[in-house]
């Protein structure tokens, strides 16, 4: 009887750990842009902030949209609701900084590629599970954050890290995609 109970427990564990592949959101085939920029595209995220013990401090909803586009010296740029100009080219997804331009997501890319001084491609076909579904993503690591981006959809998940007083890193902020609309 004891062996039957152990067998049933193990069977239940195995069955419950099997992935449901029906909710995987695959990027569009032949995606040339890692973040699709078109006026009207929008993304909303749940942002959760944690303390050093991992307890939730706050949760907010943030939304971003492509508000407009503009031509500058014959090149098309997109203005997100954050007032930062962004664009895609054959190297990847870019944004303006106060003094320069920054390649935020190299695409296409290979695992191990390093660029923009502090950014590195850490994966290119990872399944990232969030409440919205499971997305195939590239992973980009910087000095304080890791971004998971699904080609043709955009940012899926972002994790920010800080150091505790003893130097150990901890997750202090997580942003996960709640909804998106692509035109």
Q: Care to describe what's here?
A:
It contains 1 helix and 13 strands; from the N terminus they run αβββββββββββββ. By secondary structure, the chain is mainly beta. The chain has one domain (32-181): Clam (outer membrane lipoprotein receptor (LolB), chain A). Strands 1, 2, 3, 4, 5, 6, 7, 8, 9, 10, 11, 12 and 13 form a 13-stranded mixed sheet that branches. It is globular and about 50 Å long. The N and C termini lie far apart (59 Å). The relative contact order is 0.19.
Strand content: over 45%
Oligomer: single chain
Output the helix-strand order: HEEEEEEEEEEEEE
CATH class: Mainly Beta
- CATH-defined fold name: outer membrane lipoprotein receptor (LolB), chain A
Proportion of residues in helical segments: under 10%
Low-confidence stretches: 1-22
The tally of beta strands, per DSSP, is 13
Determine the N-to-C terminus distance: 59 Å
Count of separate DSSP helical elements? 1
Gyration radius (Cα, Å) is: 19 Å
Which structural class should the secondary elements be placed in?
mainly beta
| Number of discrete domains | 1
Mean pLDDT: 86
Shape assignment:
globular
Largest sheet: 13 strands, mixed
- The appropriate CATH architecture is Clam
Topology (elements, then pairings):
Blueprint: H1 2-17, E1 24-25, E2 42-50, E3 56-72, E4 75-80, E5 85-89, E6 92-96, E7 101-106, E8 114-115, E9 119-130, E10 133-141, E11 145-150, E12 154-163, E13 169-181
């Amino acid at each position: 009887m004891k062996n039957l109970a152990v067998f049933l427990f193990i069977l239940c564990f195995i069955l419950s750990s099997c992935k449901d592949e029906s909710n995987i959101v695959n990027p569009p085939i032949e995606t040339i842009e890692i973040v699709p920029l078109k006026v009207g595209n929008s993304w909303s995220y749940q942002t959760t902030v944690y303390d050093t013990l991992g307890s939730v401090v706050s949760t907010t909803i943030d939304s971003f949209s492509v508000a407009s586009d503009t031509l500058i010296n014959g090149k098309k740029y997109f203005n997100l609701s954050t007032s930062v100009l962004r664009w895609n080219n054959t190297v990847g997804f870019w944004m303006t900084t106060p003094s320069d331009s920054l390649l935020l997501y190299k695409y296409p890319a290979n695992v191990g590629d390093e660029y923009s001084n502090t950014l590195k491609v850490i994966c290119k076909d990872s399944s990232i599970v969030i409440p919205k579904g499971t997305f195939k993503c590239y992973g980009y690591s910087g000095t304080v954050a890791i971004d998971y981006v699904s080609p043709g959809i955009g940012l899926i998940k972002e994790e920010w890290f800080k150091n505790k007083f003893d130097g150990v890193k901890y997750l202090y902020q997580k942003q996960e995609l709640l909804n998106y609309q692509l035109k």
